[in-house]
Design a protein that fits this description.
By secondary structure, this protein is of the alpha+beta class. 44% of the residues lie in helices and 18% in strands.
């Protein structure tokens, strides 16, 4: 090793092709708008936090938290804000972590409202502005009502429809006893948003 070898850039870690593909898929789900979306959301997050983090730190927090929301089954505010607090090394308060959570998920209250999901008129309203959280909440709702997926019920088909200017996801499921049931979810708040 030469005297100035420490100044040379370190070689980039090369992932196996399958891992590289998986990473790209996760990145696309978190940021379908690519680099431009990351830059815009980083600027918005930096402004929201009023300089408590540098712009670079805000960008790291944004990416870390969005990847967590994509990968982790627990998208609860308690889980996500705890991760935000740890990843920022105490630079943010609990309130600021809550603001980041609301910014990224649109969740500032109960995840669901409305009816029982039996029809468009009785749709379960998903109170999220992010499809990452919204779609997860649809399945979590069905699990709360019908039990464990692929044990007590299985998905037959999921489809999107629009009625009276509202966007709906309809999940048709088959129960363990062979009966079928449809769940209507009003997804207007998050449809098309990531």
């Amino acid at each position: 090793m030469g005297f100035f070898d420490f100044l040379k850039p370190k070689p980039k870690l090369k992932l196996p092709p399958e891992a590289e593909k998986a990473c790209k898929q996760i990145a696309f789900v978190a940021f379908p708008g690519g680099r431009r979306q990351i830059e815009e959301e980083t600027a918005q997050l930096h402004a929201l936090l009023r300089g408590r983090l540098t712009k670079k730190e805000a960008g790291h927090l944004l990416q870390h938290t969005k990847f967590l929301l994509v990968l982790d089954g627990d998208k609860s505010e308690a889980r996500v804000t705890a991760s935000i607090l740890v990843s920022t090394n105490g630079k943010l308060s609990q309130h600021e972590a809550h603001l980041v959570y609301v910014f990224l998920t649109g969740m500032s209250g109960p995840a669901t409202a409305g009816g029982d999901g039996s029809s468009a008129e009785n749709a379960v309203v998903i109170n999220a502005t992010s499809s990452i959280v919204g779609v997860h909440e649809e399945y979590a709702y069905v699990e709360r009502v019908c039990g464990t997926r692929d044990v007590d019920w299985s998905l037959v088909v999921q489809g999107k429809t629009t009625e009276n200017g509202r966007d709906y996801d309809v999940l048709s499921i088959r129960m363990k006893d062979g009966s079928t049931r449809d769940f209507w979810f009003d997804i207007t708040a998050f449809f098309g948003r990531f």
